[in-house]
Amino acid sequence: MKKICFMLAFLLIFQVFTLVVVDATAITTVSSAYPLDVNQQIRGRVVNFTLDVPSAWRRHVEVQREFFQNPQPILERLIFHYRPANIAASRALLLEIAVFNRDDWQDNLGYTRLTETDNHVYAIRVATSNPFVFGADRLLFDNMIRDASNPAFLMDYMSVPRGGDMVVRNTVSVNGKRMSSPTFTTAQRVVFVPIREVAEALGYTVGWDTATSSVTISSGTFFTTLTRDATIRQRHNIINIDGISYVSTMFFLQVMQCNVEIDEHSNVRINREVRR
User: Fold this and answer.
1) Residues of the chain predicted below pLDDT 50
2) Structurally, what CATH architecture does the domain formed by 172-271 represent?
3) What residues does CATH 3.30.457.10 cover in the chain?
4) What one-character-per-residue DSSP string does 146-208 give?
5) Is the pTM here over 0.85, yes or no?
């Protein structure tokens, strides 16, 4: 009896700490799975791609990234679950985006090819039925299934390498020079850029005022500060992303008197004579 109890306990622990995913060809053990911030750009960890969660989805989905112990045929996978407004309802699987080695791709894995590169195949699996019977959840989930099933819709939010080329998104350049940090777009479609990198490229000195928790920007007689408190008059609020301070492009347009251009892929071009 003790042996039976021990074995049951062992099996329970094994099920809690090991995720097993079954596809059409093999059993693949997930080595790690963790949630992602839907308000920030998602970047591939095994393969170089980026994905912006559609702004209309962000309040309604949870996204989880999965890696695998044996990284074939799937290298990396993103799983989207719909989070219903009705608290009595359970969340529902909406979409999976999986990246395969090109040589390992097979049409019988239950996925539909989304796009491909020289080395990889990006594929999707979309919910085929709506578990919600009534109300806004049913209507919204139907709309999201429709969008997720449309490759053109998804590719508007993804950048994947194509040989040596890449659909460029979320970059910032100053006087034609590309910065190393990406832009960041909020749910309200406000585009933010890294303060220090952009300001220094324009010839300014950037510092940090510990007493006021503000970024300082100066050059000659020019001096201004940036703070997280957007209520302070004539100051633009800053946000912190991965330890880097960002500010809206409006700051460089209105305060720094730069020419600012933003394209449909959130690429930002800032131009102005460099201060010495």
Assistant:
1) 2-4, 6-31, 164-167, 234
2) 2-Layer Sandwich (3.30)
3) 172-271
4) HHHT-HHHHHTSEE-EETTEE---S-EEETTEEPSSPPEE-TT--EEEEHHHHHHHTT-EEEE
5) no
